[in-house]
Amino acid sequence: MTRAVVLLSGGLDSSTALAWAIREKGYHCHSVAFDYGQRHRVELQAAARVAKAFGVTDHRIIRVDLAAIGGSALTADIDVPKDQNETNDIPVTYVPARNLIFLSLATGLAEVVKASHLVIGANIVDYSGYPDCRSEFLDAFARAANLGTKAGTLTHDMQVDAPLIQLKKSEIIALGLRLGLDYALTHSCYDPDASGTPCGHCDACRFRLQGFAELGESDPLTYSL
């Protein structure tokens, strides 16, 4: 049986990636979420809900204090941009080296549970320009993981699966619906209110709502629009 470690934030993309890994590929999945000082910490609850819904028996939360580094609207006292037009700049919601750190920790877990695949919901079509979501980065990380681990050196290659990398948000949602993912369990908003209600105006909310609209489906979440 092929084992995989899935990076599961509880958001739309990572939840769809978990559904793909289990129901499309038949992987035996371990999932991991990260409590990294993010302002939208409510996503950890969503990750646990999604993992439970898909029968994942090993769902872990790893704590790493990226707020100590700062430099992002998700981890520091910087306003989350709302209703802004897309630019070529990397937005302030980029968290420095986040996927590099998360994938490294997930690689360590993969060695322990003897998994040969890391699954991540990275996407380069409907995204905010994050450099650590590009296929070039993921390919380079896989090479580094195989050079720098006991597993990669002695037993098996570590592969990074990014099944959503070339999909539009509407296509990601369509895939998740086909695989039986209930998007009411997920959370995408960067700046929810105290009750966890998504704002509807940050990039994450806007891309999500646009995807559902393009698909002709209704987002099951309620927004504080």
Describe the structure in your own words.
The chain has one domain: HUPs (Rossmann fold, 3-Layer(aba) Sandwich). It is of the alpha/beta class. Helix 1 packs across helix 6. The longest helix is centred in the middle third of the chain and has 16 residues. Helix content is 36%, strand content 11%. The protein is globular, with a radius of gyration of 17 Å. A five-stranded parallel beta sheet has the order 3-2-1-4-5, sandwiched between helices.
Question: How would you summarize what this structure contains?
Answer:
The chain is α/β, with parallel strands linked by helices.
The parts where pLDDT drops under 50 for at least 5 residues are: none
Secondary structure: helix percent: 25-40%
| Radius of gyration using CA atoms only | 17 Å
Number of structurally distinct domains: 1
Largest sheet: 5 strands, parallel
- Please tell me what the overall shape is: globular
Strand content: 5-15%
| Number of helices, counting only DSSP H or I runs of 4 residues or more | 7
Widest beta sheet: strand line-up: 3-2-1-4-5
Structural class: alpha/beta
CATH-level-4 superfamily name: HUPs
Helix and strand succession?
Answer: EHEHEHEHHEHH
CATH class: Alpha Beta
CATH fold topology: Rossmann fold
Mean pLDDT: 94
* Strand count: 5
**What CATH architecture label applies?**
3-Layer(aba) Sandwich
Could you give the distance between the termini? 45 Å
Topology:
Layout: E1 3-7, H1 12-24, E2 28-35, H2 43-53, E3 59-63, H3 98-113, E4 117-119, H4 135-147, H5 150-155, E5 159-161, H6 169-178, H7 203-215
Parallel strand pairs: 1-2, 1-4, 2-3, 4-5
